[in-house]
Amino acid sequence: MATLKQVAAHAEVSVQTVSNALNAPHRLRPDTLQRVTKSIELLNYRPNRNARSLRTSAVELIGYCVPSWPDGQAHLVMDQFLHALCTAAETSGRHILLFTAPVGVEGMPVYEDLHARRLVDGFVLSQTETHDPRHGWLKEQQIPFVSFGRVWKETTQPGPYVDVDGAGGCAAAVRHLHETGRRRIAFLSWPKTSGLAEDRLSGWRAACRELGLPTDASLAVRCLEDTIDQGARATAELLDADPGVDAIVAISDILALGALRELTRRGLTAGVDVAVTGFDDSPLASVVSPALTSIRQPMDQIATELIDILTTPATPGVSTERLLQPELVIRGSSAPG
Amino acid sequence: MATLKQVAAHAEVSVQTVSNALNAPHRLRPDTLQRVTKSIELLNYRPNRNARSLRTSAVELIGYCVPSWPDGQAHLVMDQFLHALCTAAETSGRHILLFTAPVGVEGMPVYEDLHARRLVDGFVLSQTETHDPRHGWLKEQQIPFVSFGRVWKETTQPGPYVDVDGAGGCAAAVRHLHETGRRRIAFLSWPKTSGLAEDRLSGWRAACRELGLPTDASLAVRCLEDTIDQGARATAELLDADPGVDAIVAISDILALGALRELTRRGLTAGVDVAVTGFDDSPLASVVSPALTSIRQPMDQIATELIDILTTPATPGVSTERLLQPELVIRGSSAPG
DNA sequence: CGGGGGCGTTTTAACGTTCAAACGGTCTTC
DNA sequence: GAAGACCGTTTGAACGTTAAAACGCCCCCG
Fold this sequence. Notes:
With about 325 residues, chain A is an alpha/beta fold. Chain A has helices at about 5-10, 15-25, 30-45, 50-55, 80-90, 110-115, 135-140, 165-180, 195-210, 230-240, 255-265, 285, 300-310; strands spanning about 60-65, 95-100, 120-125, 145-150, 160-165, 185-190, 220, 245-250, 275-280, 295, 320-325, 325-330.
């Protein structure tokens, strides 16, 4: 465990010079730099992050509250997201610190504490809710943050965010289905209380109208829970009420799996008789058969933008609200063969 | 952002006394303690972790390498594990720091670097492999670690670990199936190269023998990948070759889902005609129908033991190898109604 | 030849905390 | 009544780093 002092002694320079060699190499004369660099390598020196942070009061750590989920609700792309976030943080020399906190505003003292004790520089929020109180609170406390997901509705100054254009994604799915000959496209959704759901639904509706396809109220079905069973049940209702449906855009992969199951149960072939698309391109999408066409969120890009916004000092010209386009991954459930 | 100095001035004591009030309150006279405590509250003081860590050279941070998975292989219980790990760390005043690293021994420089720069005190490893080189390497470097999962086979001094008795879990599943009248129980497995697979398989074999049930080689089928398709295909082969099979113990929930699908395809009812069990009790197990009987790993306990081993200084009497019992969660796929 | 300006390096001080030793007071003990 | 032990508190130093200022040197210019 070599220290700056030991390196300095070895290279026969002052401590500060070694520090400069690392943080501002242009200040050193080339030969000095080389001598110092050699000593650093020789002694296998690594800067002590704690000492550095104490001096600079920046810890290069970003807090992320690991979501807890109601039973039976999986976050199937969470590991993708975490991996992307981690990678993005690392390319900027930072790391992710995990913690737990109560949901909503009750969790705020935890955020404040972590920041006050200087365990983190700022936070990445996810699971943003319709009237998420966390944004306003953090802004008030002047704690840096960025949110994955817009704050939906009625909140003044929502703060910096990165989000995916769910409406655009669903519209793309509808257009793809239209191109492959589908003409009566249903939408499997969640309850109205979710901003996410309304956004995606609006994309389906807009694209259908644009293409002259029906958007009857009966074509948009809501499931109370994000489970396979609910997806299957809703699909059954849909097909019973309207046998002409030839495609289903589901708001999640899980609901889409439910749709697939119900189709199989009825002796229908997904992708042939009725096309199905999901959302998130979770790992399950590619392991079922027929494999599920799904709308993939660009996790790497999301993570990069999140870290970028969080670590770049606010600049007048640069927006801190970024909407990214998802990608439609086409598989057998909508285009067999 | 109050500091110790400011609190000291406010309480009219020395800095060290305030420090003692927090770290060794028994040393203070009750009235002094109260006065100091009051000042701390009044100024909303929070100790600066960096300064503390610099002095004590302990950062109270535990590194965990976020696993990256081959496409189409989901780690469905990773968020459960992370949540449990986080919670366990927090109850001991620590936190989890995420990072990425190449798999195997190539990732070791990353571990060393994080430790040398004093970003973490130690590591929790997971995804332990048969000849995992990380354990030996870390031990050699004297970097504290604990592994979730045994090092299988031939490694001397495997190092501290917490693991789940997969054999015991599978044996419990077999006994449960036997109790409910099943007499020809098959096992859906992975390739032989996995220590995990061999462990679980051995539990099935042992329990069957104990109960006088057949363990023909044809009853133990191997799937090359952990996908629903592979599980379905293997189940099809199994039933074609041996129509007498009345129960299937699958080594993973994913394979079990494949089995369920194949049964449905054949017009058989899971839980009635053929019983099926999975492993991990992933979120999917409870959202399919019939819901899947599955072997649940005690995540909270696992996490607690991991943190305990990692943070407790080695004591001669106390073992650092702990094997925990999983819990069989019985649902409709093995016991309808 | 004296003053100003770069340049590369060193010096000084500070970040906020804890450890170890020192201190002064009171209470025992012989 | 002096010596020792104990208790609660303070003092001094250190952890390893970086920011800012100071320094000495050389070069240029008037």
